[in-house]
Amino acid sequence: MVLGLMGFFYIIKASFLVYFSIPTALIYVIGYYLISRERLYDYVRLVYFWISLYMGVTTVCLGYGYGFHLYSMSMIPIIFYSVYMGRSLKNTKSVNAIPASIAIVVIYLVCTLIPVFKGPIYSNDLGVDVIFWIVNSIIVFSFLIFYTNMLIKGISSSEDRYIKLAMEDKLTGLYNRHYMLDRLDELAEKDIDTKNKDIKDSSAEDDYYIAMLDIDDFKKINDVYGHNAGDFILKSVAEIMKSTCSDSLVCRWGGEEFLVLGYDKTIAAQQMEGLSEKVSREAFVFEENNISLTVTIGIADRNEADSIDKWIQAADIRLYEGKKSGKNRVVYH
User: Fold this and answer.
1) Residue whose C-alpha is closest to residue 76's, from 44, 110, 116
2) Are 76 and 104 in contact (CB under 8 A)?
3) Residue 259 φ/ψ, nearest 5 degrees
4) 157-160: long-range contacts (C-beta < 8 A, 24 or more apart)?
């Protein structure tokens, strides 16, 4: 683009702008090198200084009828985007976007007012100023649309990532307690709406169940084989639960406890018995150590309690009963 403008400046005999285009082209080459080295701070300072200078010089030389002053409109959102982008680069100074934006506004005002009072340095009768205004306007608005879209996408991606981190257990990859409580609260609200509308369907409250699972003698595993082995067991059990309970919502409730929200109570006992059997038969090998494992599970239907807390408590009580009666049990009623 700069080289093309250089040719135009030659045609209209704006000799100073022809020579000024040479270092302008070199600036972008240097800028590419700086970006490739992740020297974003140096890049922004260099390129923004020169773009501001270029915008000012071309406006003073040709007048604001060519639309070169419009580039200030795109420069401001881009510099804010560069600040956002710089957060992902290590050991990078932050560009202060507010003073830079104010400086751009000042340059814009000065460079557009000079032609108003003094007139442009170069004038011609080619009648191409309108064409340049349109082309520069399209370029500026394209920059605005592109970088605004990039900024929104970046923010949305960051929010999604943070939401995932907030709702996911880092060790096992399962949902965490906070996420499960949110889903249970939504379920409770849905139940209230269903009752108020006097509607009974396949997703009504009677169909749900909760299963609380605890790894038996988990402390002993940590004591004998170390905490790394304990982490390995937690991740392994989580994988088994994800495959066995793929039609249910599974979360790590805390420590060695897991919680399952199932949507069909008629298969609750069968599904949990299958899960318990699969864990007990699995060969857990950690650093050439064979680790035997069992789990105890307590199950409670949704219609057994009038609140989410009591529903969870009912499953927890049955889990405790299974522990007292010898572990490696699935307690339903």
Assistant:
1) 44
2) yes
3) -130, 135
4) none
Q: How far is CA 291 from the centre of its chain?
A: 38
Strand ranges (E), the chain: 175-176, 209-215, 249-254, 257-262, 284-286, 289-291, 295-301, 330-331
Phi, psi of 45 (to 5 degrees): -60, -45
CB atoms within 10 A of CB 309: 11
Residue 257: pLDDT band (50, 70, 90) is: very high
Largest CA distance in the chain: 99
In the sheet with 209-215, reading across from the earlier edge strand, the strands are 175-176, 249-254, 257-262, 209-215, 295-301, 330-331
- Yes or no: say if 28 and 2 are a contact pair by the CB < 8 Å rule: yes
Give residue 261's identity as a one-letter amino acid code: L
pLDDT greater at residue 125 or residue 327: 327
Q: Which amino acid is located at 36 in the chain?
A: S
Q: What is the Cα–Cα distance from 314 to 306, expressed in whole angstroms?
A: 11
Confidence category of residue 39, pLDDT binned at 50, 70, 90: confident
Side-chain-side CA neighbours of residue 188 (13 Å):
14
CA distance 263 to 249: 9
Average pLDDT over residues 87-103: 75
The Cα-based distances of 216 to 7, 234, 283 in angstroms read 80, 12, 16
The tens digit of pLDDT for each residue in 187-203 reads 877 765 544 444 344 44
Strands 257-262 and 249-254: antiparallel
What token pair was written down for 63?
């007048």
Which amino acids are annotated catalytic? 256
